[in-house]
């Protein structure tokens, strides 16, 4: 079992303060609000011809997993974090909007490197009119590093 937060002393307080500072920074600098009816397709970060692109990066989880292997008899603890990156692509075809999403989540463990993995997902959305939508997810497939 890994040492607890208390046994690591001052280093943990520095890590905790750094994490709190990052969370506070995210709360102080949120993404600007969009008007109702506005979407990322209307305001992409980049445009290549008729295709609008919006890259994304998120840190979705940081913490300690108290039972990495889901073993009731011998729980093992490890630090973990999940970072996600991806891209959203949009194109307008007449009155229709076609959206495609691609993302990868890297799940990191400090001690148990065998548990590190990447989750990939692809999906899309086609809005034919304001009242009709057709949504699809091609696949979600995790793989190990």
Descriptive overview:
With 145 residues, the protein is mainly β. It is built from one helix and six strands, in the order H-E-E-E-E-E-E. The longest helix has 19 residues, at 10-28. The chain is elongated. The two termini are 24 Å apart. The model is unreliable at 1-8 and 139-145 (pLDDT under 50).
List keywords for this structure.
145 residues, mainly beta, disordered N terminus, six-stranded antiparallel sheet, elongated, 1 helix
How many β-strands, per DSSP?
Answer: 6
Mean pLDDT: 75
Shape: elongated
What is the SS-derived class? mainly beta
| Separation of the first and last Cα atoms | 24 Å
Question: What is the radius of gyration?
Answer: 20 Å
Low-pLDDT segments: 1-8, 139-145
Report strand %. Answer: over 45%
Strand order of the largest sheet: 1-2-3-4-5-6
**Largest sheet composition:** 6 strands, antiparallel
| Portion in helices | 10-25%
Number of helices: 1
The helix/strand order is HEEEEEE
What's this model, at a glance?
This protein is mainly beta and 145 residues long.
Topology at a glance:
Blueprint (H helix, E strand, L loop, with lengths): L9 H19 L17 E3 L2 E15 L12 E16 L2 E14 L7 E11 L5 E12 L1
Antiparallel strand pairs: 1-2, 2-3, 3-4, 4-5, 5-6
């Amino acid at each position: 079992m890994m040492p607890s937060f208390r046994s690591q002393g001052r280093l943990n307080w520095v890590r905790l303060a750094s994490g709190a500072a990052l969370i506070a920074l995210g709360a102080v600098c949120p993404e600007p609000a969009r008007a109702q009816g506005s979407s990322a397709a209307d305001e992409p970060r980049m445009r290549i011809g008729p295709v609008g692109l919006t890259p994304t990066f998120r840190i979705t989880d940081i913490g300690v997993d108290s039972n990495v292997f889901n073993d009731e008899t011998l729980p093992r603890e490890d630090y973990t974090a999940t970072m996600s990156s991806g891209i959203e692509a949009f194109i307008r075809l007449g009155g229709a909007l076609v959206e495609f999403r691609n993302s990868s989540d890297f799940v990191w463990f400090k001690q148990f490197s065998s548990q590190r993995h990447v989750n990939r997902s692809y999906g899309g959305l086609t809005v034919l009119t304001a009242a009709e939508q057709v949504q699809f997810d091609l696949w979600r497939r995790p793989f190990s590093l």
